[in-house]
CNTP2 protein (Irena cyanogastra), 245 residues
Amino acid sequence: MKTLKDVISLKFKTSESEGVIFHGEGQQGDYITLELKKAKLVLNLNLGSNQLGSIFGHTSVTTGSLLDDHHWHSIIIERHGRNINLTLDRHMQHFRTNGEFDYLDLDYEITFGGMPFSGKPSSNSRKNFKGCMESINYNGNNITDLAKRKKLEPSNMGNLSFFCVEPHTVPVFFNATSYLEVPGRPSQDLFSVSFLFRTWNPNGLLLFSSFADDLGNVEIDVNEGKVSVHINVTQVKKNRIDISS
């Protein structure tokens, strides 16, 4: 395909911070890749470069953050020549691509949810998307519906399921006055804890526990946006350990 205009839209939700949402490339050096990197949305686009290097078409735009929250997010990409509107959850970003070309030449297939291994360093370092997509529309074609009715030729869909698998994690919301107290484990030499958290607040207590027999305590908190661990031990000379990250 050689297009002057493109409109690509879809919705996705995932708990993964990395993954290719869609990819297409051509023999003239053209490509378009939309992917998640560090839970941000990155669009890489090239409408063509020349071998002399005087025309450098690669363009990369990043938008959004914390997109691995397993909530639905909507994307619309509208291109007319070198002018691009990238809309994420109703927030639109306008930019122009580098280079001098207006057409996007995609000679090979377009893949959603990953990219084929081409032997290039860029292909084997990228992860496939893991999560749900819906309402995939590419230049007027309802890709989701065509895939479900197996009307895409040629196609290699792999192990696709036409329903969303929900994660088995159970989140807990704290409102700054609530807390969760659980019984300790006496006569244990090992203290081990792990959890995931997300907050917009720069300060807050994440965990506190006293050791038995008045031997001290451990405290984990967020202080000015950094996680700090404080361990107080009463019966040794160096009775306080502070770790910040």
Notes: The first strand starts at residue 2 and ends at 3. The chain is about 5% helix and 40% strand.
